[in-house]
Structures are given as C-alpha cells and as structure tokens.
C-alpha cells in the first residue's frame, strides 16, 4: 500500500457506507462521478475524508458473518487521529457491506497511522497483522488479537518485525499471514536501500508461539519475489496466499499505485522459492472509462466454507482521488486460477 494523500475530488454520487456510531463525524460530503457500469460489489468509505476511499481488502468469516478489513484515508480536516487507519465492514453475502468498526492509532509506533490489516483466525481468535504508516523506512509490522474481530488488544512488543539485511531498507509493510508446515508465515513488502524498488520478503514463527517480536526469523537473506516483468514496473507488493494441495499460490500487486497496479500469481512448494505462473496479469486494470481504469490492485484472497475462492481487490478511475473495493470469483483448472465471469 503506497499512496500519498491526494486532494479531495468534487464528485456527483456518494457511495452508501454505514458508519459506526462512535466514528468521527465525516467531512462535508464530496460528490463522486459514478461510471456508467459498476460491479455488484462497489464499496467505498466516505466517513473520514468526505469522498469514497477504501483500500487493501482482507476478508474472513467469523460467527456466521463476513468481516472485511480495509485501509481508510486520513481525516480531511486533520482532527486527531490524523493518520491512516483500518476500517471494518460486515456482510452476509460478500456483496453488500456495512461499516461496523475502526482500528485507530493507539501505540506510540502507530501515531502517524496504520494500514493493511491482514486478519487470520487461529484457535478461535482473530490475529491481525498490519503495518505502521507515514514513517518511510521505519514503517514496520505489528500484531493484535481479538475475540470478536472488532475490538483488538495490541501486542506489547509492537512493532514485531522489520526487514533485515543489507539488500533492503528495513521497511516492512503490506503483509499476509498463513499457516504452513507447522509455522506461521509472514510475507511482506520491503524496498531496496534507495527506496525505489519494492519487493517481497518472508519471515516465519512457530505456530505455537505468541507471534511477538522474538518469535520471528527471516526466511533467507534475499527477496522471495522482485519486479522483473514490464507490467510490474518497479514494485511487487500486497501478497495474498492460498494453499491448494501441496502448492501455495501467491497473488500479488505488480506496479505502484496507478502505474497501473495489476494482479499476478506465483507458486511455491516451500514458501521460500516462488515461480511466476503467468507472464501477464491475471487481472488487469480496466479500459478507459471503466470504474477501475487506473488500476486493479492489492488482492485479498478468501476461501469460503464451500471451497469457492474469491479475490477482493481495489480500483479507481481517477488516479487515486477515490478508491473502491470489489470482488471476483476465482476458478481453478489444471492447477491454475482464472477469473470466473
């Protein structure tokens, strides 16, 4: 997730997104120009900035309902807390979403903001891995735990993980967490020392650990995936992993925001060595005039109880003045994912 704060856009339609009663009063609503054709799921949160703005989706199922965690823009009028934060929405059908909560900065390391909430249910509890934001090279990964998916207790050792080694800048953002071979894996984005090229790194912790700062060990001393294809430009980020049989599938965002960012896939048998499955994006940005003409990015993979795979993602058509979340179904054929119509 790499996006500067952009000026408010004057638009013509406000997206309906129900805010929690405790949320700050929104800025005066902007109006947003809705494309002629939008997907069935078209979610944006205007409660903080006055314009629809939701990024970096992650969906889980808990207690018979779906919960989606997403990044929210800073408050438009600089009221505290001024930085980025994480929103929570709920749904019964994966299409219609209502906002039910917010995760706001709380610890000193989060004072400039937090984003990219990746939730995973382990032993009946929701573990949220996220990163601080607004600190450049010093942004790092954090951890919190919840019984209900709405109220979280921070790990006192936060931040729990930064990148290590001379090959990177130390930054750690955009993580995904998944279980594999008795360990919990964190795959996350970092940058080279010059802060120009974004790539993926990995760390592991014992599944029985507390996932605090002392639990994590780097997986190797090099990136596990870095931009190589033309459409990936200088950025690979937003990892989201699903396991099928003995194979791990890594969905990722290639290209910085609005390069355009598009979505690719790589596979692995061990979580450390990854091979691209396609030379072209699995999901590209839309054509001019469509809702996602500026990008289709930051995938969030979710597998429902019936085995159906869904890919949530972000998009916009105004180079980031607004951001919306949507979803596509993923089918599988011959060991490869495809977008279902």
List key phrases describing it.
4-stranded antiparallel sheet, mainly beta, single chain, 41% strand, 341 residues
Describe the structure.
With 341 residues, this protein is an all-beta fold. It has a domain at 123-339: Tachylectin-2, Chain A (5 Propeller), CATH 2.115.10. It has strands at 55-62, 65-72, 85-91, 98-103, 114-122, 125-132, 141-146, 153-154, 173-180, 183-191, 198-206, 217-218, 236-244, 247-254, 262-268, 275-276, 295-303, 309-316, 324-333, 336-339. The strands form 5 sheets. Strands 1-2-3-4 form a 4-stranded antiparallel sheet, with no helix packed on it. Strands 5-6-7-8 form a 4-stranded antiparallel sheet, with no helix packed on it. Mean pLDDT is 91; it is low at 3-28.
How would you summarize this macromolecular structure in one to three sentences?
0% of the residues lie in helices and 41% in strands. It is mainly beta.
- Biggest β-sheet description: 4 strands, antiparallel
Mean pLDDT, all residues? 91
Taking Cα atoms only, what radius of gyration do you get, to the nearest Å?
18 Å
Order of helices and strands: EEEEEEEEEEEEEEEEEEEE
Helix content: under 10%
* Ends distance: 27 Å
CATH topological fold name of the domain at 123-339: Tachylectin-2, Chain A
Low-confidence stretches: 3-28
CATH architecture heading of the domain at 123-339: 5 Propeller
The 3D shape can be described as globular
Q: What percent of residues are in strands?
A: 35-45%
Classified by CATH, the class of the domain at 123-339 is: Mainly Beta
Secondary structural class: mainly beta
- Strand line-up in the sheet with most strands: 1-2-3-4
**Tally of extended strands?**
20
Q: CATH homologous superfamily name of the domain at 123-339?
A: Glycosyl hydrolase domain, family 43
């Amino acid at each position: 997730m790499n996006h500067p704060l952009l000026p408010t856009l004057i638009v013509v339609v406000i997206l309906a997104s129900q805010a929690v009663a405790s949320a700050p009063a929104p800025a005066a609503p902007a109006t947003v120009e809705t494309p002629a054709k939008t997907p069935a799921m078209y979610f944006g949160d205007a409660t903080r900035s006055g314009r629809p703005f939701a990024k970096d989706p992650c969906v889980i199922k808990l207690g018979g309902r779906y919960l989606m965690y997403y990044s929210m823009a800073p408050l438009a009028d600089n009221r505290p807390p001024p930085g980025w934060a994480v929103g929570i929405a709920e749904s019964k059908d994966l299409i219609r979403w209502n906002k039910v909560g917010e995760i706001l900065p709380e610890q000193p390391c989060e004072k400039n903001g937090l984003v990219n909430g990746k939730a995973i249910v382990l032993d009946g509890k929701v573990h949220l891995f996220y990163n601080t934001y607004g600190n450049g090279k010093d942004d790092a990964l954090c951890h919190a735990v919840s019984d209900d998916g709405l109220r979280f207790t921070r790990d006192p050792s936060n931040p729990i993980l930064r990148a290590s080694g001379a090959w990177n800048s130390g930054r750690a953002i955009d993580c995904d967490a998944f279980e594999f071979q008795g360990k919990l894996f964190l795959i996350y984005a970092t940058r080279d020392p010059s802060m120009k090229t974004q790539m993926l790194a990995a760390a592991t912790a014992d599944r029985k650990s507390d996932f605090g700062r002392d639990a994590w060990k780097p997986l190797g001393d090099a990136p596990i995936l870095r931009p190589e294809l033309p459409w990936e430009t200088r950025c690979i980020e937003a990892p989201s992993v699903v396991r099928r049989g003995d194979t791990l599938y890594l969905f990722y965002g290639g290209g910085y925001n609005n390069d355009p960012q598009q979505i690719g896939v790589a596979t692995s048998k061990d979580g450390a060595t990854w091979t691209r499955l396609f030379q072209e994006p699995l999901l590209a940005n839309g054509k001019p005039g469509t809702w996602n003409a500026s990008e289709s990015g930051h995938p969030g993979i979710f597998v429902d109880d019936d085995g159906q795979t869904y890919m949530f993602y972000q998009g916009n058509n105004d180079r980031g003045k607004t951001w919306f979340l949507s979803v596509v179904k993923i089918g599988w054929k011959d060991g490869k994912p495809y977008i279902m119509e």
